[in-house]
Amino acid sequence: MSGHEHEAETVLWTPEHPEAVRWAPDGSGVDLLDQTQLPELTIWRRCRSADEVADAIRRLQVRGAPAIGIAAAYALALEVAQATSLPPAALLQALRAAAGVLRQARPTAVNLAWAVDRVAAVAETALAQGTEAAAWRAWDEADRIHEEDRAMCRRIGEHALTLFPEPEDRPLRIMTICNAGALATGGMGTALAPVYLAHGAGRALRVWALETRPLLQGSRLTAWELSRAGVPVTVIADSVAADVMARGEVDLVITGADRIAANGDAANKVGSYALAVLARYHGIPFYVAAPSSTVDMATPDGASIPIEERGADEVRRGFGRLTSPEEVPVWAPAFDVVPGRLISAIVTDRGVIRPPLGRGIAEVYG
Amino acid sequence: MSGHEHEAETVLWTPEHPEAVRWAPDGSGVDLLDQTQLPELTIWRRCRSADEVADAIRRLQVRGAPAIGIAAAYALALEVAQATSLPPAALLQALRAAAGVLRQARPTAVNLAWAVDRVAAVAETALAQGTEAAAWRAWDEADRIHEEDRAMCRRIGEHALTLFPEPEDRPLRIMTICNAGALATGGMGTALAPVYLAHGAGRALRVWALETRPLLQGSRLTAWELSRAGVPVTVIADSVAADVMARGEVDLVITGADRIAANGDAANKVGSYALAVLARYHGIPFYVAAPSSTVDMATPDGASIPIEERGADEVRRGFGRLTSPEEVPVWAPAFDVVPGRLISAIVTDRGVIRPPLGRGIAEVYG
User: B3-154 belongs to which homologous superfamily?
Assistant: First the structure.
């Protein structure tokens, strides 16, 4: 394997957090930790084609924009590797077909198309040197995307760590919603990255994981990955967060973001806005941690961010049982918008942006 | 049946809301609408003994302090009716044994012991006139408790209605949590009583029902009973409430209460505190509606209210499936405390108490 990759492993890998995606050790496929089965079952799904990875993405077996991008990148590399005995023109055709299938698996995830296009471009260029070269370069590019993501997570973690207060004689109490952790990325996550770093450095921590209705990414995924890493974590229903704050049991709130507007408004998993209002009311800092790619200078403010509405059945029969009358409407937005005025700082891999957020964002991303 | 009962039916009964408890028409038992099966199945359970009613109470097939009290009162009347052929001493023994079983079904529900004691006392006194007299008086007392509860609900509704703003050219938008409706009482509920009255008077309304984790009384019960009554209701996950408020879609919040302290702090279903903070942040009035019996002058403030903690499994496997790792702790308080400073008014059957709540409560209940 390439030299940079081994070096990256040494520097960036911490054994504490789980992987969401990995290249099968024998090169026969892409292994995905099936997140729909967690925490009941820890099942690795070996995908042996781009079709199978696209299927896994559609089923949310792998989720989180960075993790999806990495899975798709490896999937494309796999298709090329399986086509090296074909004539170059046939390989090119197979490559383009697979890229199309992967791009469409979740059309709204920006990372997905970006990662697929990157691997496809490199492979097409290398094809001039033969099909084996194309396969090798495709794999190397996918692995590079993975490695860059690991490094990005770590930088977010290091920057976010500067926001953590000085250690006291008790554990630092952190609250988070949904899963912005290792399972959503190729590395140690975004909002959870400073948690892993602090824990790795021996700092006492305690995390409050909001269950996160309707799909329960907090209780199913965040609780699983933190617990597995030895980080003390307690699950609460979303409605319990305010009470925990009122009891003085929260030092800071940190969440991920799905899109950050130019003025600092941030869209994230629904419930984040409530958490930000409650944090402000209780005098608790509210931080947002996300990759630079999340900052969208073309979106002036939160009102311009389109909010995906999910199906009523995620609420109405999310657990396989009818928990609300069939005939009663359910309003189920997937995200809400935290206005910049409620955000104490935004952390990306490029550093910490403090209020006024609009000015800070313009300086870094303008 | 007694004259007062028929009159009460005429005045107090509205066909729109469901009943939680009723005396079987043929006198052979107490019929309970099984609330654990709603909304999937509408099953009436006919309980033919105090043991069976106690079992139903323990299983939460009937819930809500007023509804539990009524069910237990009828259950005791049933036991006496089934023992009229026994010698008076044996009937007394059966009566006392049944009262003991019923009182212990849920020891924390104050209404339960109160209702059982009331029926037992009347029956014991009437026993001097024979077992048939005891049976008749026990039934009459149970029915009186039911009727008083219906009247109490209606008075709460009438008082709460005075807090509703004048009609505009759009429906009034009301938000509520848990179930403080007909299913929790012998009548039209507490927080939902003004909703039924306004709807019955032809006013356009729209209710936002918070799902209410972990036991989903909002999506299962409130949505069911309002929808059945023709009141437009939309279910949302608890975490969505803030976003609905921010969109300007809520005119008022109204909830029930499990205990109201002398200073106006109110304990209610967990999530109520968050709702009160969010309502204040968005400039939306937050009302609490509850029976007078909920006001506890012996409790000076919210900090003195004991908060029941529920089992972790209600969160962890509430739907029959593991949704949080077995080894991760869950903190699951059943209630939280809304400080009086966040409550715009408290409504009981005795009227509306406005801030300063402590003074108002002292005037009415001191």
Answer: translation initiation factor eif-2b, domain 1 (1.20.120.420)
Q: Do B331 and A240 touch (CB under 8 A)?
A: yes
- Type of residue numbered A99: A
Beta-bridge partners for B261: B296
A36, closest residue in chain B (CA to CA)? B323
Residue type, B312: A
Is residue A200 within 8 A of residue A172, CB to CB? The reply is no
- Tell me if B329 sits within 8 A of A234, measured CB to CB: yes
Give residues 234 to 263 of B whose Cβ lies within 8 Å of A.
234-244, 246
Chunked in runs of 10, what are the mean pLDDT values of chain A (366 residues)?
A: 38 67 94 95 96 95 94 98 97 97 82 93 98 97 97 98 93 98 97 96 96 96 96 98 98 96 96 98 98 92 88 86 94 96 98 98 96
In a 10 Å sphere around its CB, with 0-12 CB exposed, 13-18 middle and 19+ buried, how is residue B306 labelled? Answer: exposed
Query: The complex's ipTM?
Result: 0.91
For residue A315, the chain B residues in CB contact (below 8 A) are 211, 219, 235-237
| Sequence-distant (≥ 6) Cβ neighbours of residue B84 within 8 angstroms | B91, B131, B132, B134, B135
Nearest to A217 by CA among A248, A192, A253: A192
**What does the pLDDT read at residue A110?**
72
A258 is catalytic: yes
Phi, then psi, of B293 in degrees rounded to 5: -65, -15
CB contact at 8 A, B212 and A239: yes
List chain B pLDDT tens, one digit each, 366 residues. 333 433 333 334 455 789 999 999 899 999 999 999 999 999 999 999 999 999 999 999 999 989 999 999 999 999 999 999 999 999 999 999 999 999 999 866 678 999 999 999 999 999 999 999 999 999 999 999 999 999 999 999 999 999 999 888 999 999 999 999 999 999 999 999 999 999 999 999 999 999 999 999 999 999 999 999 999 999 999 999 999 999 999 999 999 999 999 999 999 999 999 999 999 999 999 999 999 989 999 999 999 988 888 889 999 987 778 999 999 999 999 999 999 999 999 999 999 999 999 999 999 999
Residue A336: phi and psi, rounded to 5, are -135, 175
Query: Where in chain B are the domains?
Result: 3-154, 157-365
- The three-state secondary structure class of B352 is strand
A44 — contact with chain B (CB < 8 Å)? no
Is the CB of A227 less than 8 angstroms away from the CB of B325? yes
Among candidate residues B338, B242, B336, B239, the one with its CA nearest the CA of residue B288: B338
Task: Note the helical H segments in chain B.
Answer: 3-12, 50-58, 65-81, 88-103, 110-126, 131-161, 193-200, 217, 223-228, 241-246, 272-281, 313-316, 357-365
Note the pLDDT of residue A15. 54
DSSP calls for A121-184: HHHHHHGGG-HHHHHHHHHHHHHHHHHHHHHHHHHHHHHHHTTSPPP-SS-EEEEEES--SGGG
Q: What is the pTM of this model?
A: 0.92
> What digits encode the pLDDT tens for the residues A316-343?
987 778 999 999 999 999 999 999 999 9
Q: How far apart are CA A109 and CA A117, in angstroms?
A: 13
CA B295 → CA B69, B116, B188, B289, B357, distances in Å? 17, 20, 20, 11, 12
Place of tokens 């803030």: B242
Largest distance between two CA atoms of chain A: 68
Determine the Cα–Cα distance for residues A241 and A253; give it in Å rounded to an integer: 10
Architecture of domain B157-365: 3-Layer(aba) Sandwich (3.40)
